[in-house]
Amino acid sequence: MPRETQEFDEFHTQVAVRVKGFRPTAQRPHVFEVKQGPGLGQKFVLDQNELILGRGEKATLTLDSEEVSRSHAKLTRTDGEYTIEDMDSRNGIVLNGLKVHAAVLRDGDQVQLGDVVLSYREGV
């Protein structure tokens, strides 16, 4: 039995050795792009763990629309994924045509806040 353990330890050690010249690719940031409404074509790079979307002074990502609340939605990054959550806004959040209170975003999602439609892209 000790021999089996020794062989496993040797194998495990060999697997754990770094391959010379290999460099992991850095993750590219996630992006919101305005697809409809005020600010059409504008891109927002999502590079913080917490972001506030809205039209007010406290918003990290400012959307210039009267249909967007001052603090409309909060984006939270956990393990490389963003979750969007409504902050008791007037018009709520519509994700891919469905009204939601909170959801994890996926590449290609369409998020509507008032009359602003944003396209969510991962690593663009």
Report on the structure:
There is one protein chain. With 124 residues, the chain is mostly beta strands. It contains 1 helix and 11 strands; from the N terminus they run H-E-E-E-E-E-E-E-E-E-E-E. The protein has a 6-stranded antiparallel β-sheet, with no helix packed on it. A hairpin with a 2-residue loop joins strand 10 and strand 11. It is elongated and about 55 Å long. The model has no long low-confidence stretch (mean pLDDT 87).
Task: Provide the low-confidence segments as ranges.
Answer: none
Strand count, sense and barrel status of the largest sheet are: 6 strands, antiparallel
**Averaged pLDDT, please?**
87
**What's the helical proportion of residues?**
10-25%
| Ends apart, CA distance between termini | 51 Å
- Strand percentage, roughly? 35-45%
Secondary-structure class: mainly beta
Rg for CA atoms: 21 Å
Biggest sheet, spatial arrangement of strands: 2-1-11-10-7-8
Count the beta strands. 11
Element string (H = helix, E = strand): HEEEEEEEEEEE
Please, how many helices?
Answer: 1
Shape: elongated
